[in-house]
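hiii, so i know i said id send this last week but things got crazy w the move. better late than never?? heres the sequnce for the chain we talked about at the cafe, plus the structure i predicted for it. fair warning i was half asleep when i ran it
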Amino acid sequence: MTSNSEYEALVAGRHNNPFAILGPHDGPTGRVVRTLQPDAVAVELVDGNGQKLADMVSVHDGGLFECPMPPRIRRYALRVSYASGEPVVVEDTYRFPSALGEMDLYLLGEGSDKYIYRKLGAHPCDLLGVAGTRFAVWAPNAARVSVVGDFNHWDGRRHVMRLHPGNGIWEIFIPAVGEGALYKYEIHDQDGKLLPLKSDPYAAYHEAPPGNSSIVFASNYDWQDDDWMSRLTAEPDLGQPVSVYEVHLGSWRRKDDGNYLTYRNLADELVDYVASMGYTHVELLPVSEHPFDGSWGYQPIGLFAPTQRFGNPDDFRYFVDRCHANGIAVIMDWVPAHFPSDEHGLRRFDGTALYEHADPRKGEHADWGTLIFNFGRREVMNYLIGSALYWIEEFHIDGLRVDAVASMLYLDYSREQGEWIPNEHGGRENLEAVAFLRRLNTEVHAHRATTYAEESTAWPGVSQPVHAGGLGFTYKWNMGWMNDTLLYMSEDPLHRKYHHDKMTFGLVYAFTENFILPLSHDEVVHGKRSILGRMPGDDWQQFANLRAYYAVMFGHPGKKLLFMGNEIAQRDEWNHNQSLDWHLLEYGPHQGVQRLVRDLNLVYKDTPALYEVDFDGAGFEWIDYSDRDSSVLSWIRRDRHGGYVVCVVNLTPIVRHDYRVGVPGGGDFKLLINTDAEHYGGSGVGPGPLAADELSSHGRQHSLNLTLPPLATLILQPAQ
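okay and structure toks below
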């Protein structure tokens, strides 16, 4: 017998197990059907054809009805009458069994379900021949969880979920709810307190801010990139060219009316541009759903949802597909380090510190006002690993750039003494984060994708394999090279000889990691000026310095990354609220820089010596790093088969005649790049005859007698 107290709890929305009362149940006198229909004046039990089987009797004035189940009836529905309108026929949610099997529940509880996003979240499906949506969410410390939405008038009493107590999963199948439905979770904490409505951590789609509802979505996209996907391997070939165009989709270019380009617009305009410029990869600042534009996506709420700002998830799939059709790999910025404290997000999701650490010394980023994931909790690790694999499997993302890795690795990151808790060995290393990153990289590589660490410290082995004791990233951003060389280039050429080591020091450690050379978005914001704006001298010298610097970057060991706008010599800092200054391309110097970047990409991809041996000292050899008085550097890059190029850079505005450079062999050379060429906006000084003399220099039997253009880089190659 069901007690009156249970009825009271049910109609008040406090009962945590409505499946024990509602739906069909065996009773002392036979099978009984109960339903909770708040505000209903009458409810009838009907068969599959809508024929009345029985009148249901009110057993509580809060909307609780029941009646005996007629014999031999297996399927039924409810006809509900309200004072305000015609009766409606609805399926009874509480007659449906769990849609999660024993193995599903076991893996979820163990924290080892790689494809957790297929189980949790909202999934349109058929159950017992009825169309609807299956909802599931992890909230182990909640007293009650309901799905609320337009379909139930945002009334938490109507669809209280089923709890699986072994793992804290709540789930329910709601008939007739389909794509496009808005929903949230209504959660009572363990003390029965009603929490702010929560977005679905696993939602595939979200409402546009200031709304924050999740949206039911099912993909029907037909991928066209089978050939691209068939070529992917678990072990990336580090000897391939990688030239990355980093993009913020909301400010690359906008429509004439100032609105965003859509994913499908970008699939045409951005993809065509990236292909025409010769880049191999495009990297997207985070496209995971985020409430605040000013975070640039680095404070995500929805780690399983492309932002709705540019379209729906299938529109984003189309964008990736078009990239692959044009030979462009897609890297996505991904943020597992922290999450924002918005009430509708993960913060104290079930009334407890579920995703975050309870102790603020481990759980809060004071600098950013964000919360830190509890990497040591298996369910949280499963959530994050699941997110990473979701983007790879569902959206064919080729690589993940992991943001703020240093903040994950160190317990004392941006903290004073007494503001952090040492690890079990008394150290500052976050051992749980280390374990998470190693597992992440292992799984991502097994799914034939790459990883890129934005890591700014000297942590050893960031890009070394896990089996060799490393963190397992494919690549690491070289922040040291970026900082040193930008500082050098900002110096007046007259003083550069006193800072010569800033251009050479990077070679001391260049082969300790698989480095990416980044000139990223972080270098053109917050008062740092644009890359062009950091260059000294008058307008001509600024452009000349910039061109020389870009060519140095392409000649230096390491893969390449340029943020959007750098390739057109953007004059102002990046502003996420507006388009790049494309009108600058009306002017010759900006056209010249763009032509140079395009040619650098083409030469780079066509010249194995510039990319095949990036991470081994065998691919690099100084010719002369010591000519600080002239601010001239020269070096050799080699490929795997004996081919090589010679790079010579003059970082003063002085033309240097009869400058001799030792080279490995005799014969004619050809000029691949001269950043002073008139075509690029330079003065047009050429290097002169490119025939190596049998005259020793720099310890080599042959040498070139060159004219070095002012503030310029030369890249030369044997003609044979």
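btw The radius of gyration is 31 Å. thought thatd interest u
miss u guys!!
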